[in-house]
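Supplementary Methods. Inverse-folding protocol.

Structures were first reduced to a discrete structure-token string of length 201. This string, shown here, constituted the complete conditioning input.
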């Protein structure tokens, strides 16, 4: 094909002088849309959370928040194990009180009465803390910033209690609680728990 060929759609019309263009046409051929200018996006930027292109529209729970949720459920499960162990200990002490060998030992009976009451009290606290962990984890899907703050405070207090007084037993609690506090405190955690507020703007 040549520029003089009448069948060439990119050639110069016959009878007109050829314009300089280094072999490229200066204007787009008919039927071809013009190129978009540089610097202006064709659509809103894609959100990393898959929210229709706008950064504030978070529609899927981030991975770190999912991990924090699982850790809360694990903490709740560990608390339930603790409830069973404390309850068994209290029942064992109560059963020992009726043992004929120690039935006449006044000091043991007094100590057993105090120990049993304290253990049942600890059992109630451990149960309440486990229920709170499970409820917080369940609320991650629909809860707002209040759930995030509660989970953050829960994680900090649990980590402190895991260090003292429950140093050995609470090591797993400490690690899990620190991770929960870190994950819900991160920027993607804040974006997830504030998504309903952001959607209003």
């Amino acid at each position: 094909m040549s520029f003089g060929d009448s069948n060439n759609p990119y050639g110069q019309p016959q009878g007109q002088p050829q314009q300089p263009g280094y072999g490229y046409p200066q204007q787009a051929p008919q039927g071809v849309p013009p190129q978009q200018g540089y610097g202006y996006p064709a659509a809103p930027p894609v959100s990393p959370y898959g929210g229709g292109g706008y950064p504030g529209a978070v529609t899927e729970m981030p991975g770190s928040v999912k991990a924090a949720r699982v850790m809360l459920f694990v903490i709740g499960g560990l608390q339930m194990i603790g409830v069973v162990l404390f309850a068994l200990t209290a029942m064992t002490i109560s059963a020992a009180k009726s043992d004929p060998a120690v039935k006449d030992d006044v000091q043991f009976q007094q100590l057993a009465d105090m120990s049993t009451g304290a253990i049942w009290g600890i059992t109630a606290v451990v149960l309440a803390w486990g229920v709170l962990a499970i409820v917080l984890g369940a609320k991650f899907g629909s809860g707002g910033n209040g759930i995030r703050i509660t989970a953050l405070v829960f994680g900090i207090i649990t980590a402190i209690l895991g260090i003292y007084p429950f140093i050995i037993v609470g090591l797993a609690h400490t690690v899990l609680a620190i991770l929960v506090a870190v994950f819900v405190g991160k920027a993607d955690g804040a974006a997830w728990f504030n998504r309903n507020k952001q959607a209003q703007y």
